[in-house]
Design goal:
mainly alpha
Length: 107
């Protein structure tokens, strides 16, 4: 069974991959996708966590990037409700999961 710390580290690795993808896109399409996800989630089931992300996303990519990659407890909490789903393909996510598992078994 994974500890919360292991899950948080894996979540951070996924966030880093998302940031690389969005950084490489001059249109920042991933930011638009995250905004759309927040809007849809807020319509379906409003929550403080999603509202917090909506406000962060209003600040633009640099603000959102900082929040997404924040290594503090706040960053870990925010990543638990990250609106950046859909940026990475299932294959890319599974590659990160697999790589993370390999690293964990070696330690």
């Amino acid at each position: 069974m994974k500890t919360h710390q292991e899950i948080d580290r894996r979540s951070l690795e996924l966030a880093r991959a998302v940031a690389v993808r969005i950084d490489a896109d001059p249109r920042r399409g991933g930011l638009d996708l995250a905004r759309d996800n927040c809007a849809r989630w807020l319509r379906r089931s409003p929550s403080a966590a999603v509202e917090e992300w909506r406000r962060i996303l209003e600040g633009g990519w640099e603000t959102a990037r900082q929040a997404l990659l924040d290594e503090s407890e706040t960053g870990a909490r925010l990543r638990q409700s990250s609106p950046f789903c859909g940026i990475l393909s299932p294959r890319e996510r599974w590659e990160i999961y697999r790589r993370f598992e390999d690293e964990q078994t070696r330690t």
